[in-house]
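Hi P.,

Sorry for the delay on this. The queue was packed all week, but I finally got your sequence through. Input first:
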Amino acid sequence: MNSPRRIETIPAAATPRRSTPCVLVVDDDAALARLLSLMLRDGGFDVASAANGETALAEVEANRPDAIVLDLEMPVMDGRAFFRTLRARGDRTPVLVLSAYNARRAQRELGADGHLEKPFDPEALIGAVRSLL
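Then the structure:
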């Protein structure tokens, strides 16, 4: 009589992380989103993007980014609503607020992990994202 075959599984905690960190860019300005993506790729990151908070929530669920660069002023679901929904779901992905309208105040108001004022230097963006990781 054959003995039953044993199937071994790997616990989720033992699943290896990707070797290159992934950053989700959330901005409704398509040209700026492309520019941010290029800068971040040049900085050594994988990049995904979303044009509003609603799309970004779906992207977070599907791909689990390592960090998020978040604009505040967007249609459909703005950055503040996205951030609050993300945290209400228990997601603690580090978020960098990127805004021309007092990003520091928005960071404090929301409890985000970092901020960067528009306009910004590409090196400042790369450094700010690296500091989140």
